[in-house]
Design brief:
The chain has helices at about 1-20, 30-35, 90-110, 120-135, and strands at about 40-45, 50-60, 60-65, 70-75, 80-85, 140-150. It is α+β, with helices and mostly antiparallel strands. It has two domains: about 25-85, SH3 type barrels (Roll), CATH 2.30.30; about 90-135, no CATH class. Strands 4-3-2-1-5-6 form a six-stranded antiparallel sheet. Helix 3 runs antiparallel to helix 4. The radius of gyration is 25 Å and the shape is elongated. The relative contact order is 0.13. Mean pLDDT is about 80; it is low at about 20-25.
């Protein structure tokens, strides 16, 4: 029994050591791109243009997007900012939960019907408001920044 516990401890220690010493990506843009799923809408800002398209894949030095019928390759070194379009559903749910909970809780607390608990009404409002807010906002999409280049040092602007 002692040997198996030691072996297990050694295996866990080696696993923890191995996972903590993994190399960090050299380019933070590549790390950001690795989190984008194929088919997601992407907006890439470079020094001279802004390109929108569907993410296809990434290579060791560039991103490949689909714009209508053509494919566009953009080098990591050209990326100043990278945005991904995502649904606003989670924001709508949070806003709806807050508004629904406050509204129904307040209505039950100040209303003429005292047989409904304000806590139960607020809980129902949170549920209904979250559901309606998520359903309404599910059709709305927002750009979310995934990467933004750090600002240039002040003294490099004058040279």
């Amino acid at each position: 029994m002692g040997l198996s516990v030691r072996a297990l401890f050694l295996a866990v220690a080696l696993f923890a050591l191995g996972s903590s010493t993994q190399a960090e990506p050299l380019d933070p843009r590549a790390d950001a791109v690795n989190r984008i799923l194929p088919g997601e809408g992407v907006r890439i800002h470079s020094m001279d243009r802004t390109v929108e398209g569907k993410f296809v894949t990434n290579r060791s030095d560039s991103v490949l997007l689909r714009q209508a019928a053509e494919r566009v390759s953009i080098s990591y070194s050209d990326i100043q900012r990278l945005d991904v379009i995502r649904s606003a559903r989670s924001h709508g749910m949070i806003i709806g939960m807050f508004v629904g909970g406050v509204a129904l809780g307040f209505a039950a607390a100040t209303g003429a019907q005292h047989d409904i608990s304000p806590v139960l009404a607020a809980a129902s409002g949170v549920f209904l408001g979250g559901f309606l807010g998520g359903a309404i906002a599910g059709g709305i999409h927002e750009w979310h920044p995934v990467y933004e280049a750090p600002p240039a040092p002040a003294d490099s602007l004058h040279h």
